[in-house]
C-alpha cells in the first residue's frame, strides 16, 4: 500500500499539472467498492468545480475544490494498487479505470485501481462549522517532540504496531516503520510505553529523516506504485532492512531477520536494534 512518501509524491505531481483547472465532466465505473460517496454525488460536486490545490493528509490525496461559493474536497485513497494519473485524452484508458475527470486544460485525471481497495469520496463545507479533512491521526512530518512522546505513553503494544496505528500517527506504514526503527536503533517488538524519552526522540527524528528522503526520491516502488506520470520511485534502492531478509546488515553485516508483529511482516537487524 502506498505510504506517506508515495502519496505525497503523487499529490505534488498532480497539483503541479492540474491546479487552477476546472473539472468539465466526470465519468465513473460505478463499481460500488470504489466509492464511499455515491458516483452521483461525486459527479454533482466535481463537475464545474475549480481545482484550488492537491495535497496529502495522512495516506489520503485531498483535492480542494471551489465553485460558486461552494467549497468541497475530493478525497482519494489509493488503497493497495490505486493510481492517480494525469493523461492526455488520446492515451488509451488503462484497464480497471474507475474515474476519469476531464479538465479545462485538455488533459484527464484518471483513477485506476486493479484490486479496488482504493476509495473515492467528497466532503463539502457548506456550513461555518464544517471542517476540512484532517485525517485520523497526527502528521509525522510536523508533530512536535512532546506530542510524539505523548502518543506512546502507557501503550503496551509493540512499537512497530503502534507506528502502524493510523489513529496515532497517520501516513506511516510497513516500509517506513521498519526503516525508521532501524535508523533509531530500536527493536520492533519493544513495548511502546517502555521506550525512554531519548529513544522516542531518536525515533521521531529517524522517521522524519527517512520520510523526507523517500519523498525526494519519489517514494518506494516495491509493487504497483507509480507517480502521477506513471513513473516508479527510487527509495527502494535505499532500504536498509525492509524486504532484505537474510541479507547482511549494511552497518554490521549481521543477516537481517524477518518476524511478524501485529500481523505484519517486520524486518530488523538483531545487532543494531536493541
Your description of this structure?
With 274 residues, this protein is of the alpha+beta class. It folds into two domains: 4-124, Alpha-Beta Barrel (N-terminal domain of MutM-like DNA repair proteins), CATH 3.20.190; 145-268, Helicase, Ruva Protein, domain 3, CATH 1.10.8. 24% of the residues lie in helices and 23% in strands. It contains six helices and ten strands, in the order αβαβββββββααααββ. The chain has helices spanning 4-18, 39-46, 145-151, 159-163, 174-184, 197-216; strands at residues 23-28, 50-57, 60-67, 70-77, 83-87, 97-103, 108-112, 119-124, 257-261, 264-268. The strands form three sheets. It has a four-stranded antiparallel beta sheet with strand order 1-6-7-5, covered by helices on one side. It has a four-stranded antiparallel beta sheet with strand order 2-3-4-8, with helices on one face. A two-stranded antiparallel sheet has the order 9-10. β2 (50-57) and β3 form a beta hairpin. α1 (4-18) packs parallel to α6 and α5 packs across α6. The longest helix has 20 residues, at 197-216. The protein is elongated. The chain starts with a helix and ends in a 6-residue tail after the last strand.
Feature tags:
alpha+beta, 4-stranded antiparallel beta sheet, about 25% helix, single chain, 6 helices, Helicase, Ruva Protein, domain 3, 2 domains, about 25% strand, about 270 residues, N-terminal domain of MutM-like DNA repair proteins, 10 strands
